[in-house]
């Protein structure tokens, strides 16, 4: 299984964690990733090609002499991967095998150059997971080279010895690669699961149809389902399937990941349903800088000063009734919140009484970033917070007078709360040990694109 994970490196970067529904995410792995995968895959491929060669039956001296053969080294100086349109991936590995032949009176050392070719189609399995297989595998051998310059080896021995080694390798190498690929498919199947977002929420990615493969990239249509308390978040209306345009993101990037408006709508709906966007903002009288008290509010609303001659701390109870909206426009992402804010003050019986309530509209700029495999966000307020009085137990309220105070006591706690939530992030499609490196984010009309290099770390 360890070797399966080793060869898996050749393909793991080509197959994000995927496994049915409409696509809201597209992962496009460009041909630039193949050079990285090939270079990183040389070592595990060399280990995989270390096979056992049975004894050679030597009749050259007229007497049968079983001769032991050992592979001392397998070196892959060149490994090339390329996409085959409509099919999968073609592998070409230039390989040098070094053998020790335990002859009497002294051993013989041979190097056998060969080229290993394999075609690996990528398809969708019956349970929605990606499946890699071997449809064709060939070994092309060059002539063996005797490494012991002082050692003369009769052609009568070298020719049958070389044929013996070639026959063994032809049978074993492709079988070894096929077994490794099957082991990798088992390993890959375990990666289809839930990635945590918060304590009670997860995201699950699954491939919904056969990959699209061109000579330049492999593209996977992926459905992302967000769960809250094991229940999926379902958007209230059906939307048009997401299609990632051809030329978006950074030219030359290894990966181009498109995330649709649907994914953002699902994420913000999850936060609302979880109650995560609600918060209580409490004033502290002992603070050196505390504006959230009846004394400050009484200067703006006389009835508050009359009811509370002594300074008392206030509480802002912020609740999200209306669903927040994320808007994606070219080079601009915004978030609109419409919380209901109730202003409370302590009553004589240790309870709280409602002074007044406000319908609030907050427009926020949304800045997105990627850290390792997680898409994260931060916000900042755009313009002024809009206030409308919903109810009042303290008479007339002039919102123009209250606006500066409410903005001062409301904006920072709200931003701190939002940025802590959005900073946890949502995992992007990935396989284990894979990270996005030096990602760039582009905002388009109705979707965003993450262009990135990839890094595989064991």
TrEMBL record:
It comes from the Eukaryota. Coiled coil: none annotated. Pfam families: LBP_BPI_CETP, LBP_BPI_CETP_C. SUPFAM superfamilies: Bactericidal permeability-increasing protein, BPI. InterPro entries: Bactericidal_perm-incr_a/b_dom (IPR017943), BPI_fold-BPI/LBP (IPR051660), Lipid-bd_serum_glycop_C (IPR001124), Lipid-bd_serum_glycop_N (IPR017942). One of its GO terms (molecular function) is lipid binding. Belongs to the BPI/LBP/Plunc superfamily. BPI/LBP family. This is BPI fold-containing family B member 2. It comes from Balaenoptera acutorostrata (Common minke whale).
């Amino acid at each position: 299984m360890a070797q399966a994970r080793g060869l898996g490196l050749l393909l793991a970067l080509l197959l994000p964690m995927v496994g049915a529904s409409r696509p809201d995410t597209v992962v496009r792995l460009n041909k630039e990733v193949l050079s990285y995968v090939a270079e990183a895959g040389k070592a595990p491929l060399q280990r995989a090609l270390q096979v056992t060669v049975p004894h050679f039956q030597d009749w050259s001296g007229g007497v049968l002499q079983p001769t032991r053969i050992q592979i001392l080294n397998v070196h892959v100086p060149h490994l090339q991967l390329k996409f085959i349109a409509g099919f999968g991936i073609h592998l070409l590995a230039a390989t040098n095998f070094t053998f020790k032949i335990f002859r009497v009176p002294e051993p013989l050392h041979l190097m056998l150059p060969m080229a290993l070719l394999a075609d690996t189609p990528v398809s969708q399995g019956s349970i929605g997971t990606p499946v890699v297989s071997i449809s064709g595998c060939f070994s092309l051998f060059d002539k063996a080279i005797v490494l012991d310059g002082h050692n003369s080896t009769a052609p009568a021995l070298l020719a049958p010895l070389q044929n013996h080694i070639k026959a063994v390798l032809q049978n074993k190498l492709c079988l070894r690669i096929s077994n490794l690929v099957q082991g990798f498919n088992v390993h890959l199947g375990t990666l289809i699961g839930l990635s945590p977002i918060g304590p009670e929420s997860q995201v699950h990615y699954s491939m919904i149809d056969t990959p699209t493969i061109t000579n330049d990239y492999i593209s996977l249509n992926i459905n992302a389902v967000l769960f809250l308390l094991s229940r999926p978040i379902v958007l209230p209306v059906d939307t048009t399937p997401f299609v990632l345009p051809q030329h978006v993101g950074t030219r030359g990037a290894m990966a181009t990941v498109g995330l649709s408006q649907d994914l953002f709508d699902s994420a913000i709906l999850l936060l609302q349903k979880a109650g995560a966007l609600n918060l209580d903002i409490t004033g502290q009288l002992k603070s050196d800088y505390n504006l959230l008290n009846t004394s400050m509010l009484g200067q703006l609303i006389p009835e508050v000063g009359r009811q509370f001659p002594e300074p008392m701390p206030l509480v802002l109870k912020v609740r999200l009734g209306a669903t927040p909206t994320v808007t994606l426009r070219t080079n601009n992402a915004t978030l609109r919140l419409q919380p209901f804010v109730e202003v409370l003050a302590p009553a004589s019986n240790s309870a709280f009484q409602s002074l007044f309530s406000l319908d609030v509209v907050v427009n926020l700029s949304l800045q997105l970033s990627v850290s390792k495999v997680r898409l994260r966000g931060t916000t900042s307020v755009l313009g002024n917070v809009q206030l409308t009085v919903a109810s009042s137990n303290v008479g007339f309220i002039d919102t123009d007078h209250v606006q500066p105070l409410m903005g001062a006591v409301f904006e920072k706690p709200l931003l701190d709360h939002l940025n802590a939530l959005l900073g946890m992030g949502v995992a992007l499609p990935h396989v284990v040990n894979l990270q996005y490196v030096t990602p760039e984010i582009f905002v388009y009309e109705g979707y965003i694109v993450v262009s990135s290099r990839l890094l595989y770390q064991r």
